[in-house]
Amino acid sequence: MPAESSAPELIINCKNTHRLIMNANILISNLTNPVLLFFMLGVLATAVKSDLEIPAASSKFISLYLLFSIGFKGGQELLHSTFDNQIILTLFIALAFSVVVPLYVFHLLRLKLNVYDAGAVASAYGSVSAVTFISAASFLEMNNTPFGGHMVAAMALMEAPAIVVGVILIRKYDKESTGKGSVKTVLHEAFTNGSVLMILGSLLIGFIADSKQAEGIRPFTSDIFKGFLSIFLLEMGMVAAKRFKAFLKYGWFVSLFSILIPLLNGSLAILITSFWNIDTGNRFMLAILAASASYIAVPAAMRLAAPKADPGLYIPMALGLTFPFNITIGMPIYWMLIKAIPN
After folding, report:
1. What is the pLDDT of residues 179-217, one digit of tens each?
2. Which end of the chain has a smaller Cβ tally under 10 Å, C or N?
3. Within 13 Å and on the Cβ side, how many CA atoms surround 145?
4. How far is CA 219 from CA 35, 224, 225, in A?
5. Distances 136 to 57, 129, 189, 263, 286 between C-alpha atoms, Å
């Protein structure tokens, strides 16, 4: 009898050990990602007072390139998606989060922050993190749980609306903006802004472009993407490190916000998807998309659209706090919530 009763305990212990190893592997994989290591190199360069710098013209080009590549690849994913009821519902929920989250986040942050910073942070938390998405895919693979390819399209679909909403909010509430009371003027400025136009235009072009013709620019949109992303995050690391003291001045509010808002958004996504017949893997990926914060597309856009916003605030929040929270603690929490709240 003792041997028989200990067998279930042994199985449970093995499963718990497997989960710990899985989470550790995910964490190590992300911490050793070359792209993130270049971010740390940028932080180090600033800490040791190196004269390393990225020319302003090159920085602007890289920002535009990243927006172009993300938008175009997202359009291609939408083109190749087979639309059924579940896919349409999932894309709608993703789009709704990318619009609603910046709205409530902006007004919540206005309690402590200025218009520019609140708008930039709101865009970041309404948008998504591709690296977090990739980490979530690894998590599901280790749990032998598939997810639909249309979730990549959902990720791309959430990039632009959050940026647009953030720019609209900044234009609307910025006292220095002309015609700020005119909805038409606000919308015109938001949609014709260079960064917004680039990602929306690229998304549309990717969607209508012939697949065979699109293959001709794949080396530019895909093969060199991580290289340019590494240089971009190298600069972001330097910028974040230079603004670190500025980040500290915001106190506990933004630090707590960087943890609680992702947890709230991810949990809401799980609760909402429990009312429909959406696959477990897709529910998890949708929760991750809702919980993540952009530190690639949004910083690239806000450097152009809202230069007065402090990158030493929204980059450390998204990359320094929200990202590590999601890949270490957040994903296991979202997974447990999905199991506890079945659809």
Report:
1. 444 556 656 666 676 777 787 788 889 889 988 888 888
2. N
3. 16
4. 18, 7, 9
5. 35, 11, 35, 15, 10
CA 280 – CA 13 distance, rounded (Å): 24
Amino acid found at 172: K
- Residues 240, 312 contacting (CB under 8 angstroms): yes
The amino acid sitting at 187 is L
The first and second tokens of residue 290, run together, are 């809702």
Tokens encoding 197: 């136009």
Per-residue model confidence as pLDDT tens digits over 261-308: 999 999 999 999 999 989 999 999 999 999 999 887 788 778 777 888
